[in-house]
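mind reviewing both lines:
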Amino acid sequence: QSYCHRLQHDMYFLTSTSRLNEQVVDKIVLQLNRVYPQILTNEEAEKFRNPKASLHTRLSDLLKHLQKKGDRHCQEFYRALQINAEQLFNDLPSRKILKTPDPTEIDTDKEQYMLNDRGPVFFLACFSVAAGLALFWYCCNSETQVLGRARRILGFSPIIIGRHVRNICLLYLEDISRN
């Protein structure tokens, strides 16, 4: 979000009564007049520091003037506000929006420690598949002669593996034993 949009969003909050006193507004105007690059010229600074106009009017005019000048000028205003009225700067509505986390954003600190959020059933299913593949690979190795034992294990495991998968494994084992 650009600083001009933020300033437009914060304008009502800043100009409401008792938010900024005259001394703080004068300090902000002087800082904007003295920083490099110069944000306010001497004439503009005198205009916004004029004690004859009400504080509300001067502050509203200053904020509108900065919005017309561009994003860099609004950014410098926020910097001056942070230096001269830090508590008010932290209470700005646009700051509160920036501080609230985006619900779609991934929290990397949480994600770093969360390895798996699927639960124990998912773990058991993955472990069963891995154990089944390891057993299948071991049984298919031509150097081992455990086909009879593997057939017994696969024959008694309709709970772990489905019937169709068990039948395919048994047919595959029979084909390997023939070759």
